[in-house]
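Hello forum,

I keep getting stuck at the same step: I have a sequence, I want structure tokens, and every attempt I make locally crashes halfway through. Rather than fight my setup again tonight, could one of you with a working pipeline run this one for me? It's a single chain of 154 residues.
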Amino acid sequence: MPQNKKEGLFFTTIVCFSMVMTMSAYNLLLHGQFSLSNLFGGLVPGFIVAFLLDVLVVSSPAKKIAFALPVNKEKKIQLIIAVSSCMVLGMVFFMSMYGVVMQFGFTKNFLSYYIGAFATNLIMALPLQLLVVGPVCRMILRKSRQRSWLKEKI
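Reply #2:
Ran it on my machine without issues. Output:
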């Protein structure tokens, strides 16, 4: 877990980018629209929206909820699972909305499209975050701590 603001920003960036790229590819595959041009064409705007939502909207409430859950805060793995799960729920809530709006706009079928997208995205995003992206990004963070550029000056 990040220990200072620079580490937090670095960790948020790599997790967000990894999740946006993977979930974008997943959704494009589901809709039969996968191509590298479609993937990379939507990657930058999707990343910007996801990053802003993460930092400005989802992160603080998700962490408050996770820390309020009855988990053993002395056990780092339980805390990581709680925070990651709350973050995924919040991000899937908003990014599914973003995806539906970008693909279909606000139509009379918006709610049904959104519910379908939310369920489909949650099924992929939660295990992806808990089993792949989270562990890999935490490993990258640990290895990056050896670099002086992540250490805050006191």
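The chain has a mean pLDDT of 93. If your local run keeps crashing, start a new thread with the error log.
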